[in-house]
Design goal:
The chain is α+β, with helices and mostly antiparallel strands and 327 residues long. It is built from 8 helices and 18 strands. A hairpin with a 4-residue loop joins strand 14 and strand 15. The longest helix is centred in the middle third of the chain and has 11 residues.
Amino acid sequence: MTSLLQAAVAMRPRFVAALFPPGVRRLSTRCFPLSGLRGLLRLRGPGSASFLHGLVTNDVEQLKDGAMYAHLLNVQGRSLFDVIVYRVPGQGDGSHDLLMECDAAAVDSIHRHLQVYNFRKKVDVRPCPELSVWAFVQKKLELTEKPRPLALFCAPDPRGPVMGSRVVAPTGQDIADILPGVEIGTVLDYIRHRYQHGVPEGVKDLPPGEALPLESNLVYMNGISFSKGCYIGQELTARTHHTGVIRKRLVPLHLSSPLPPEAAGAEVTTASGKSAGKYRAGVDHLGLALIRLVCMKEELHITVGGGAPVRVTPSLPAWWPPPGDGA
């Protein structure tokens, strides 16, 4: 059994205390198994943080216990992969482990990407199939006192409160052993929740080499530092931020009828036929699209394969800061 898995097993009693500390009542908490959607890479070695620091948009060297959201960019400043980074505390052997959560379909690609830059660094990078990710979304919480900090392998989702908490547990672990009586949701439930709140995740929502980080709301999701040192793709991102001009954003949609998977990348048009953006992905009557902000209040449609136009209604998520408060 690996040291990470041993630590997770040893910490099992603390999961419950971490998610529901004294003074917090358990009310309508839903748990989503993400083992089929999300994978993990482990970075181990004294240079892990500094190595990753130069490759991602956020300040990994400032990460203590908990989690941090970030993107890996290409040299043109476009997003390659979205990741959540966890620092693993309490390693008695003095190691400096980081866990990187990513789209399960991108684990091998990210592994290769990291290895390209892993020279002169004593960093061991490898997939971590012995651990799996769970998402916990609290529909309602009542607090009677300030919660304690979350424990090892359990942290608030760094993208924002609307996404609840992330838990990393041993693969195959029955979550009912950790949280008896928790309501188990499906993968589709989780995807609907994300799309309803306009939170992109993975290569379908953020096509590698196409998506721009600021148009993908990286600032709103706490995924970028503008005060850290240089990293790959920084120049364009910093220039866009400092000009303060972002004309398109990835926003949630309500669809008049579901669209097929092949609709990904389809043009979103106004009633007059003018291009208003591009559809990314969706499920049922929910989806995401990159929309020109000036077109947000117009009547918009998507037409796929000569079929009838599907009306799409974009919206601005309630969790976004007021206009003028962020890039």
